[in-house]
Amino acid sequence: MIRLEGIQRIFQVGDQAVHALRDIDLSIGAGEYLSIMGPSGSGKSTLLNMIGLLDRPNAGIYRLDGSDVTGLSDQEQARVRRDKIGFVFQFFHLIPRLSAAANIELPLLLAGVPADQRKTRVDQLIVDFGLTGRETHRPDQLSGGQRQRVAIARATVMKPSVILADEPTGNLDRATGQEVMSILEGLAAGGVTLLLVTHDPEIGNRASRKLRLVDGRIVADERASS
Amino acid sequence: MIRLEGIQRIFQVGDQAVHALRDIDLSIGAGEYLSIMGPSGSGKSTLLNMIGLLDRPNAGIYRLDGSDVTGLSDQEQARVRRDKIGFVFQFFHLIPRLSAAANIELPLLLAGVPADQRKTRVDQLIVDFGLTGRETHRPDQLSGGQRQRVAIARATVMKPSVILADEPTGNLDRATGQEVMSILEGLAAGGVTLLLVTHDPEIGNRASRKLRLVDGRIVADERASS
Ligand SMILES: Nc1ncnc2c1ncn2[C@@H]1O[C@H](COP(=O)(O)OP(=O)(O)OP(=O)(O)O)[C@@H](O)[C@H]1O
Ligand SMILES: Nc1ncnc2c1ncn2[C@@H]1O[C@H](COP(=O)(O)OP(=O)(O)OP(=O)(O)O)[C@@H](O)[C@H]1O
Ligand SMILES: [Mg+2]
Ligand SMILES: [Mg+2]
């Protein structure tokens, strides 16, 4: 369902060209559970942003569910993103003026989901992610790991078919990280395609397929023995 | 050199009182290397902010190098902070419009250090932290782990006597995290007082003294067997 062919991403900084992604060929089937690891600066967030239609390649083709999405306009990309993809950003990107609950609710509100359904779903996620007592707090009134959990809850609230998570446990202690992982893995078991960027091998090794990025290239692509 | 006595920190959110720190008594000698671990939301960042004079307690006394700093004005706290403390924030707080090099240089510039000395010191830190080739990039043109390293470099650039680091390896792969830790531990070996908040037990266990926070209280304070 996700096919990248010959993907290149080059950032221009003054007269310097940064090859963040080089010759990426990647095929990911619906429902796969994949981790992406590699050194700091190796291109993991860039790859995830590409797949999440938050960025465009300089060369190559990206097919999502069979259609070429590389050439879509910004608005078309935004619509595909809203309909299919839940994204957990490495640095969350929460709305500063909204409470934790309102941040989680926002995608539902934008999609026109009725108020009673929104309340039910947000209330459940507040409980699932251990945010009870923090619903009314704004992001600046939350700890780092609480903000991270709000970001993850928001990414799941529309029940997307693809979840892209950039370092989802980076600000969490081991126990809380395990709780978050069982929620995400529960969704993957239910058929969601889950792509997880992580620096924690204990987290990355749980995936059924593991990619390793170095200097913008995929240098390893292993399937765990079942 | 750091003495907290009866420290309380209560955040008010609407009609809810959040007891982020409860009855904190803590004595840290000059040159100690201490880690602070505990669940997400347990008060680690709040404690570090308190020690770093970025926040004030609601009750209790904080003595730094023998003098009561609890009652200092904002300006006086800022001056003590600038002179004595290097702070690595959980979410970096880099200046968006400045390059990596200019972000690292900023404390030196504010302190009136001459240009040639600033250049020498910043150039060395760029190399030490593996940021070669990224000096001119602004924060939004850096990876998460690169931003984190800029934040750490900035915290060390004035050679402060106390370094407070909030999750300094949270966005780093294992190898890069080890490099950063040897820089910080090198400073600690040279006499800097190093307080490190971390979710990674492999990192936290390296300290010679380990605190554990739960729900705003210190529940463990262990010295490693030498
Ligand atoms: N907007 C940009 N402009 C210029 N260079 C960029 C930009 N974004 C990223 N880069 C560079 O591209 C490379 C890959 O960045 P990316 O954020 O994908 O790395 P990463 O693997 O996610 O790293 P980390 O583990 O530190 O988060 C880095 O060297 C970075 O400096
Ligand atoms: N400005 C604030 N207003 C209200 N509550 C706050 C504020 N800042 C923090 N809190 C609350 O105080 C508690 C402690 O927060 P703190 O950021 O110190 O936790 P932490 O141990 O650093 O967590 P993490 O490991 O997730 O970073 C949390 O429950 C948080 O919701
Ligand atoms: Mg990244
Ligand atoms: Mg914190």
Please give the largest β-sheet of chain A: 6 strands, mixed
Decide which structural class fits the backbone of chain A.
alpha/beta
What is the CATH top level name of chain A?
Answer: Alpha Beta
Question: What kind of assembly state do the chains in view correspond to?
Answer: homodimer
The portion of residues assigned to helices of chain A is 25-40%
**Side-by-side strand order of the widest sheet of chain A:** 6-7-8-3-9-10
Mean pLDDT rating of chain A: 97
Q: Total strand count of chain A, please?
A: 10
Summarize the helix and strand pattern of chain A as letters: EEEHEEHEHHHEHEHEE
Total domain modules of chain A: 1
Total DSSP helices of chain A: 7
Gross geometry of chain A: globular
Q: What is the compact description of this entry?
A:
2 copies of one chain form a homodimer. With 226 residues, chain A is an alpha/beta fold.
Describe the 3D structure.
Two copies of one chain form a homodimer. With 226 residues, chain A is an alpha/beta fold. The first copy, chain A, has one domain (29-56, 74-223): P-loop containing nucleotide triphosphate hydrolases (Rossmann fold). Helix content of chain A is 34%, strand content 29%. In chain A, the strands form two sheets. In chain A, strands 6-7-8-3-9-10 form a six-stranded mixed beta sheet, with helices on both faces. Chain A has a four-stranded antiparallel beta sheet with strand order 2-1-4-5, covered by helices on one side. In chain A, helix 3 crosses helix 4. The two termini of chain A are 22 Å apart. At the A-B interface, helix 5 and helix 6 of A face helix 5 and helix 6 of B. One adenosine-5'-triphosphate sits between chains A (11, 13, 18, 20, 38, 40-46, 90) and B (134, 137, 140-146, 171).
